[in-house]
Amino acid sequence: MPGRGAPRLGLLLLLRLLLLGCGWAQQPPDSCQTLCRCLEAAKTVKCVDGNLTAVPPDLPPYVRTLFITGNRLARLPAGAFPAQRLPHLSALNLSGNHLRAVEAGALASLPALRQLDLSGNPLVSLSPLAFGEGGSPLEELALRGALRDQGVLLSLAAVLQSGALRNLSRLELADNGLLLLPAGMFTALPALRHLDLSNNSLVGLRNVSFHGLGQLQSLDLRGNSLGVLRNGTLAQFRSLPALRRVELGHNTWVCDCAIEDLVAWLKESDQVEGKEALTCAYPEKMLGKALLKIDSSDLDCSVPVDLPSQLQTSYVFLGIVLALIGAIFLLVLYLNRKGIKKWMHNIRDACRDHMEGYHYRYEINADPRLTNLSSNSDV
Q: Which residue range or ranges hold the LRRCT domain (predicted)?
């Protein structure tokens, strides 16, 4: 029978070698067997759709790419990813969970972290110290659909302005319904190369500063509510030496006198991707007309361009008129002060006599003796 045992032993050895080559023979217990899928050869761990409520505490130390997606994580507390256990973690995907809070120090102790994806989480709290006090090596941050709360947007702006993420080269803020961006939000990102603001509701970029973004190569503004880009914004675009691609498709361009600067810039610039497809959305007579084919004779300049400043002027005049009316009223009162004083005294005396009459009748009606006396005298 030894002849039969040798092939069986060889088969077992071959199977063991295959298991070792696929990284399955030395899998850590617990998480990698019950909650996650661990691929040692690829240095990857996937904890997907497992109803996790916290980060697994026993992740293998070899992991470089970690997916914890589609779970039920409500918060990331401080020290959720200890550095001593995950010294090589460089890509962390936490998208599609139920994260509402990222607390101070939650992502501070990951020395190799370069990519972070928090997209698709209903964040309401983002600590300014989430990445620590000394700065983070993070290079790519994705927050698609995670900034629906205005407070979180302001917190993110504070984090970016603090310089904690000075190494960021890619920032994705798409699909957040943003109307306006906090002033100076991107001024402390000198390494930024790609900025994605697509599929929001941005109505203007007046308070957005691109100064200091000398490395910026691409800016995605597709799918917003931009009606015009002012000269100040266009001047910033011209001053960015590395900017090669600006995407402006699917915006509601208003083709009146204010758009002349944008049209001139489009005609002279090679930065805009697909500029031939940009068309007017308003007014109705210009609907669908290509911006590149507009000339000054096409524009209707009868409507005031700067409506906010016109309204501001109207409010000033209204205030002046009301102030004059008030001054005239006070002057009339002052000139007739004696007559008004005499009139007030007459009203007071009349009211006093009237009240005394009521009081006298009340006393008679309240005293039976006086009532009888009054009756007898009548008789």
A: 251-302
